[in-house]
Amino acid sequence: MPKKVGIVGGGITGLATALELVKKGYAVSVFEGEKIGGLASSFKTKKGEFLEETYHHMFKTDLELISLLEELGLKYEFRKATMGFYWNNKVFDFGTESSLLFFPGLNFIDKIRFGLCILYLRFENDWRKLEEIKAADWLRKVCGENVFNTIWLPLLRTKFGSKAEKVSMSWIWGRINLRAKSRGINKELLGYIDGSMQKLFEKLVSVLKEKGVEITKSKIMSIKRRNGKFFLDAFGGFDSIVFTVPFPIFLNITKSFRLDSYAKKILGVDYLGVQCMTFESEKPLSSIYWLNLGTNELPFGGIIEHTNFIPKERYGTHLFYLFNYCSWDDKIFNDSEQTVEKKYLDGLKKVFPEADLSSIKKINFFRNRFATPIYAVNHSKKIPPMETPVKGVFVSNTAYIYPFDRSLNYSIELAKKTAEKVGSFLEHC
Ligand SMILES: Cc1cc2nc3c(=O)[nH]c(=O)nc-3n(C[C@H](O)[C@H](O)[C@H](O)COP(=O)(O)OP(=O)(O)OC[C@H]3O[C@@H](n4cnc5c(N)ncnc54)[C@H](O)[C@@H]3O)c2cc1C
């Protein structure tokens, strides 16, 4: 009889871990409480085409993701993506090295300092020496106050909202280092799965089921151990369990176990939530795919015009996202959907005062309380090992993806690592 593994969470980490474990010959069950795909799940647009609930693309360096897509026989393409920067009430092209030369927000010396900083981050290989330093402190010192306030602080706020100043410099290193390697010369190439991430999850589920993996819709509330076997609520008889949910959910489910110092360590990792609204419109807003905002006076952190990346003909309409990362106790995170919509549309009018926004319609709203861990200074020392003090119980979630920005690619890499650890435990138990 093969040994049994229970996986809590049917996002990419859970499903990719299931794939690795079933390939090793284990009997695997996955439990998903809401929607397969988790943070990368999709919804159906009017024309029947699926679209991610939060913008998703991939990079040329996403080799694990690309290899999984090829294994599953899924199509994807890389396309040129335009980037912009909203600063001083104007939208500037910001997608190429040369666009920096014409950006009026930085003077000549600022541009040199910014350019040298990017070069350093591109060629520095040791991120550990940057992890004890706050990004805000390092960038202010190296690039100067104007570059920090104009470029870096808005970038940090886009991803970490009011917690921006807590983030470690190693996270910025990860983002710039990888991004620089992924870019073509003077252009940004981003990848997209034909049919959206939905295709990836549909295919993964079907392959897993063919291989005998059981996938159950159930929100797991508790874990118990009896006679050497684990039970997730009423589902039982597991030799090992993998939690792919965020730390706070893991702690809640495992509260009957005495995790003591392990739990204390986990409590040191803070999270941010995200809300992301998708709109359709008869007319485009601009020609830019990704618009970063050089101001914190707007209720959202960025504007992503999806149909400037993937042609609008697929959807029969222009589509764009407005989003913001925020703490679950921030006011806007607790606002009603209608209030958020109104705030977002008012903000949009400030960015595009000339645009005719009359045909804009909200088509989806996504909110998640644990969208990202805050990768604060010394993050690698703050996270506990994936092996919990309860032998056979593992945690594997986005907090372990570091210093590179969390993504499907790194979740797949993490899943492989997790399956190795589980396999090695099961061989010896
Ligand atoms: C706004 C945004 C944009 C992003 N853009 C990109 C991008 O462009 N490219 C990219 O590669 N990545 C992107 N990411 C990151 C990517 O989506 C995540 O890193 C990845 O989806 C995380 O997968 P996961 O399986 O680790 O976690 P999750 O997707 O969070 O999966 C965890 C699953 O556990 C389930 N769960 C929770 N509690 C329980 C319970 N009690 N019982 C059972 N199930 C439970 C949840 O419902 C969820 O499905 C983005 C993320 C966000 C938030």
Automatic annotation (TrEMBL):
Where do the Amine oxidase domain residues begin and end? Answer: 12-399
Molecular function terms from GO: oxidoreductase activity
Kindly name one Pfam family recorded for this protein.
Amino_oxidase
Q: Transmembrane residues, as ranges?
A: none
| Domain of life according to the entry | Archaea
The cross-references to SUPFAM superfamilies, in alphabetical order and at most eight, read: FAD/NAD(P)-binding domain
Matching entries from PANTHER family are given as: AMINE OXIDASE (PTHR42923:SF46), PROTOPORPHYRINOGEN OXIDASE (PTHR42923)
NCBIfam families per the UniProt record, alphabetical: PRK07233.1 (NF005560)
Record-given protein name:
FAD-dependent oxidoreductase
